[in-house]
Hints:
The relative contact order is 0.13. Among the domains are: 185 residues, no CATH class; 133 residues, Cytochrome Bc1 Complex, Chain D, domain 2 (Orthogonal Bundle), CATH 1.10.760. By secondary structure, it is mainly alpha-helical. The protein has 18 helices and eight strands.
Amino acid sequence: MADIKHIFWSLLLGGAVLGGLPIASAHAEDDEQALMARGAYLATAGDCVACHTRPGGKPFAGGLEIATPKGAVISTNITPDPQNGIGAYTLDDFEKALRRGLRKDGAYLYPVMPYVSYAGLTDQDVRALYTWFMHGVQPVAEKVPETQIGFPGNIRMSMMAWNMLAESEKPETGDSSTYDKLRRGHYLATALEHCGTCHTPRNFMLVEQQDQYLAGSQLNGWFAPNITPSNTGGIGDWSEDDLVAYLKTGHAKGRSQAAGPMGEAVEHSTSHLSDEDLHALAAFIKQVPAHDDDMEHQARDSFGTATQEPDLRSGVVHRVDDLNELDGPALYDANCAACHGANGAGTADQYVPSLYTNSVVGSGRTDNLVMTILEGVNRTTPSGHVSMPSFGSHSDVQRLSDEEIARLVNYLTIRFGSGDHHLTAEQVGVMRQPPPVPAVAPAAPQGAAQPAPPGHT
Length: 457
Ligand code: HEC
Ligand code: HEC
Ligand code: HEC
């Protein structure tokens, strides 16, 4: 699936658009062209394809099931097919869906659709997106199943209460391509890229806490870390260039790599942004208010060094028949050393990264280290493909048990990271089957449901 999407984006964005936003010209035809190109670029920045395409499905034809505490919300077909998609939407209808979370028939959309963020889009950019969706996207005549939320009646009406609690972005004004660097960065981060959807903690009503913007949040087994400029809890030690490299390639040497949901955000969205926009985004992130972190007391990427002492273990990959007998170092030798090196240094070019000065291993939370081992890494961007096998239940190389993963993780964090976190097999077991928490955004608030009016489904 990932590859199909990648090919799609390469075709779509090849050349012209990536050079930066085209400026509107005096001619009507050029205007239309410019609007189309701008719309295509904005759709990438807003990562519409991530949610509106099911695995193996046609781009934007919907059908992806997105987990929420109330059950799966199914994304809709937003291709211009008049029966099954949004072909019958006027610009006005489209604007209401995008910025206010209202469907054409007046029903409230579940806030899995990030309209709270898109509310910040300028009128001009809404129009560019509309023009591109109507004329640049292939119509797909496929009906997606209706979302069935397991709740008496359904909870679309309760969205009204949620919307009153959630603070939407205020629409920006003017031509977003002419903004200065920080304003452009703010616009990209809040209205389009919705970084806060994953990185900002939510209150008990599942509304993003704006006073904790980007301070870190749990995400289906993964943890979207604190990315405020705190020197201990966040990424205060990253330069603007580090952040640009990370968002462009998914890899900031000697600091961090993007796997799981961040790998997808990089693959489908940030790796396709222009360098100028990436710098704007990075400059904005670097100046949001810093928040320290209860679980992190030293920069995550600052632990461990390349030691000169000879590695006492051979680095030879042992053939072992009963992995249950193995302790941390032996599990490492048998499963990881072939790629990450006997001493954890990775490869010379860092295609395989070192495990010291690695934010996932240095973090005070072991969540992302466990998830990386369970799920592996698989990311394709214009700068290439990276992959690490999964060691979880569907592994093609070697399945590791909860007990083995716990032992391996405790060993790795002592050897290369921030110390012993006493991770248990039970904790790994829970992460293997993540609880049904929101995948990317909240569903309805608990207890706020009201009966739906007749006719609204
Ligand atoms: C995080 C996931 C997510 C992202 C990103 C996302 N959407 Fe959605 N969108 C949804 C879901 C889920 C629904 C259906 C919600 C429902 O049924 O209440 C939806 C519904 C819609 C609708 C209403 C269509 C209809 O009639 O049901 C439109 C229009 C739309 N999205 C456009 C967009 C555009 C344009 C973008 C990118 C700028 C985008 N979406 C990005 C999840 C997403
Ligand atoms: C779909 C959810 C999601 C979105 C959207 C998202 N992130 Fe992330 N982000 C994550 C997760 C999960 C991780 C941890 C990934 C890992 O450990 O491999 C992460 C990791 C990061 C890191 C590495 C931090 C570290 O200490 O290693 C940075 C930097 C980052 N994200 C920046 C951003 C920015 C900037 C945006 C908006 C452009 C963004 N993210 C959007 C989920 C998300
Ligand atoms: C076939 C080679 C290979 C094997 C085997 C392998 N890795 Fe990796 N590992 C990689 C590559 C490639 C990356 C991704 C680099 C990137 O994202 O740019 C990676 C990334 C990582 C990361 C960083 C993930 C993140 O989100 O930041 C960690 C931690 C890691 N591996 C640990 C392990 C452990 C523990 C094992 C053994 C259970 C292991 N690896 C086995 C190749 C491998």
